[in-house]
Specification:
Blueprint lengths: L25 E2 L6 E2 L4 E4 L2 E4 H53 L2 H8 L4
Antiparallel strand pairs: 1-2, 3-4
Bound molecules: zinc ion (2 copies).
One zinc ion binds next to strand 4 and helix 1.
């Protein structure tokens, strides 16, 4: 799909910054430079010059990689947190239940009030 931008006023008097013999066909919205049709590339509905396109796509890659690393770290932290919670609850239960069972107080209380 080729997006042909509406002709900008005064564009025909401009020359491509790379090809001084050619008339400018588009203006890069990122750097504001004038470029001929060959020097711009369509990206997300905009016509960008090659350096700006490279910069933007590289930035998107870096963000994707950062987010992936962030997600890995979050997953690791969540895993540790879940493990910690499991051991904490298990430990708390082990500390509570056996103490009453082993010293017999739980059974004494039951036998003292069998119908309550
Ligand atoms: Zn540009
Ligand atoms: Zn050009």
């Amino acid at each position: 799909m080729n997006v042909v931008p509406p002709p900008l006023p005064g564009l025909h008097t401009r020359r491509c910054v790379r090809h001084s013999a050619r008339e400018a066909a588009a203006r890069c919205p990122e750097c504001g430079g004038f470029f001929c049709r060959e020097c711009v590339v369509e990206h997300a509905g905009r016509l960008l010059c090659a350096p700006c396109l490279a910069r933007i796509s590289h930035g998107a890659d870096v963000r994707r990689i950062r987010w992936a690393r962030c997600r890995e770290a979050l997953t690791a932290v969540a895993g540790v947190a879940v493990l910690w919670l499991v051991f904490y609850v298990a430990g708390a239960l082990l500390l509570k239940i056996p103490s009453q069972v082993h010293d017999g107080s739980a059974w004494r209380r039951l036998s003292a009030h069998p119908h309550s």
